[in-house]
Amino acid sequence: MEYNGELIGHQSPLPADIIVEILARLTVKSLCRFRCVSKPWRSLISNTKFIALHDRKALEDKHVYLGRRRVIFTVPISQFYCFYSLDLDEFLTRADDHDGLVMATKLDFVHQELSADDFWNPHIYACNNLLLLYNVNSGWHLVNPATREIRKVAETPSWWMIRGQFEPRISMINGFGFDCSTNEYKVVMGLSFFKKKDDDIEGVMFSVYTLETDSWRTIEYLFPYCPQNSPGFFLNGAVHWLGMSTVGDGDGLILSLLLAEEVVREIQLPLLDDSQYWSARLGVFRDCLCITFKEYKNGYYDEFWVMKEYGSFVMYNFKEDSFRRICDITEVSDRVQSVGTYVEGLVPLSTDNRLNRSCRQDESSIKEARKEEK
């Protein structure tokens, strides 16, 4: 980033590059306040190059990354669900204290954006700096909890019938991820189609929403899978669900939609019986896909499989692990409905300030700010 020895009009004894390096390590909350210092500072902090630099600092510097990690969770209050976030590093640091408490912040702006009576689905989809939330009355919304921006996702596509042989049912799966090949956030929706004659599921069809274009594209192919009606998990450029094949023996598998190619792949699982399949839940553990099996008698998960590499699962033994147990899942399951993590960032959601706008547009806006300062 070039500033000709000054920070776009701001006189300082420090070189501009040093000032930028300092700013790039600050929290989003501080940077949002600094936008009000002057037009040049606002232009800098809104610059896509600076936003990218701010994101890179979290990847390059462990301390910066730890300082930006947040936990997001939902709690039912009255008949509504409310969203809260807390500092993950502070929580982990103070977890050993007997009475160490970490203050959670309520994300009031999510509810203030819409009617107070609107009902939000408790599940949270989190990816990098953004959240994907669903409102029963107004549909899907993308949220940047750090900048307090919210954007409504375009209306979902009208699903077409395949030669009149099949019909869609209310069996929807969803996911949210980031396509590194194009630097775009994408929302995925899958709808199961059933045969009209015998009511058997035939397959699933996907549509993909791209934030940059604010539009959906349907992948016009019926994939021969029956996915579990559960949230998708994003990892390694793909969104994953548990499911089974609709052909052959109907074995259990992991269904993956690769966001860059927008193609579907399957990952075979060890042989599962029916009780195991329907008690299994997919998740992510230490950047690996994992599967937990719920023991319905006691209401907790007692078996844990981790996929160290695609196609290879290992058993994880809780009893022999060195981790300290903070609390039983059953102690909080009646209150906390969904939990996720995100990293605070400046990713914009407004249509006139996309992250991957051309650099020429940003440079021209900086030049305009320089002229105004003079």
What class do helices, strands and sheet pairing give?
A: alpha+beta
Number of strands: 21
Main sheet properties? 5 strands, antiparallel
Q: How far is the N terminus from the C terminus?
A: 21 Å
Quaternary structure annotation: single chain
Work out the helix count.
10
Q: What is the share of helical residues?
A: 10-25%
The percentage of residues in β strands lies in 35-45%
User: What radius of gyration results from the CA coordinates?
Assistant: 23 Å
If you average the pLDDT, what whole number results?
Answer: 76
Q: Which descriptor suits the 3D outline?
A: globular
**Spans of 5+ residues with little confidence (pLDDT < 50)?**
2-6, 315-319, 321-334, 353-374
Task: Tell me what you see in this structure.
- The two termini are 21 Å apart.
- Residues 2-6, 315-319, 321-334 and 353-374 have low confidence and may be disordered.
- The protein has helices at residues 16-24, 28-34, 39-46, 48-60, 62-68, 88-94, 108-113, 274-279, 329-332, 359-373, and strands at 69-77, 80-87, 105-106, 125-127, 130-135, 139-144, 149-152, 166-179, 184-195, 201-210, 215-223, 225-227, 233-235, 238-245, 252-258, 263-268, 280-285, 288-295, 300-309, 312-316, 338-343.
- Strand 8 and strand 9 (184-195) form a beta hairpin.
- The protein is globular, with a radius of gyration of 23 Å.
- Strands 12, 13, 14, 15 and 16 form a 5-stranded antiparallel β-sheet that branches.
- The longest helix has 15 residues, at 359-373.
- It is of the alpha+beta class and 374 residues long.
At a glance:
The chain is an alpha+beta fold and 374 residues long.
